[in-house]
Amino acid sequence: MSLISCPECNKEISDTSSKCIHCGYQLKKKKPVKKIMAVIGSVLVILTAVVLLVLKFCQPDPIFPTFIELMECRSPETVKDILGGDFTYDDHENGFAFDTYRDIEIDGLGCPLFSIDYENGKCIGISWQTQKMDQGTKDTFFEAMVDRFGDVQGYQTDKYADITSEQFHWKGEEDFWMNIDHSDEDREGIYFIEVLVNWR
User: Fold this and answer.
1) What is the pLDDT of residues 7-33, one digit of tens each?
2) Could you give the count of Cα atoms lying within 13 Å of 198 in the half-sphere of its Cβ?
3) pTM score
4) Residue among 176, 138, 160, 134 nearest 168 (CA)
């Protein structure tokens, strides 16, 4: 505690006094710093929460979320949880077998064939192909793959008859192959995509 002069009567008073003991002059109290900091902190927390909520609700829906989820599956049971139980089981003499979904729709794209692939009783991955799509949808699908799995690690093209097939390869915990087939003579830009995910 220290002494200060009253602004009104100039007599000495304690710096903790709220008013002068001599003349009764009301002294201005210093605003408590801790209380101000607490209020500022609370306002910042609320503003941060509001910004995060706005960002969360303003984010666009993921592109082709079900396809991406299927590509990240680790077991046939998980695939069937996503696609349901409406599949057929096809067993071949060469040791290969397939749980096959036919003419289904995933993320707005038609799939004439989606299969869970087995070799000698062991599940080795999934494969599927889309119905025809335009160039914009094909480009968007490819961009979604790059966004999720990174840059392409392998690329090659094949040609048979009037069809050009571009093959893209991603390698991570699983191998992803994506073929994009299109006709050289098709001026409408119609594409078909075939994907193989290898769990071996």
Assistant:
1) 888 888 787 777 888 888 887 765 566
2) 9
3) 0.63
4) 176
Q: Would you place residue 164 in the very low, low, confident or very high pLDDT band (cuts 50, 70, 90)?
A: confident
Residue with tokens 């941060």: 48
The most distant pair of C-alpha atoms in the chain lies apart, rounded to whole Å, by 110
Per-residue burial over 117-155, b if 16 or more Cβ lie within 10 Å, else e, is: bbeeeebbbbbbbbebbeeebbeebbebbeebbeebeee
Residues 6+ away with beta carbon under 8 Å from 14: 1, 2, 3, 4
Assigned token pair, 15 = 């710096």
* Angle subtended at Cα 65 by Cα 59 and Cα 69, rounded to the nearest 5 degrees: 130
* Residue that has been written with the tokens 């979320």 in this structure: 65
Q: Look up residue 51 and give its amino acid.
A: V
Please give the structure tokens belonging to residue 150.
């990174």
Is 134 within 8 Å of 125 (Cβ atoms)?
Answer: no
Q: Mean pLDDT highest for which of 41-45, 48-52, 110-114?
A: 110-114
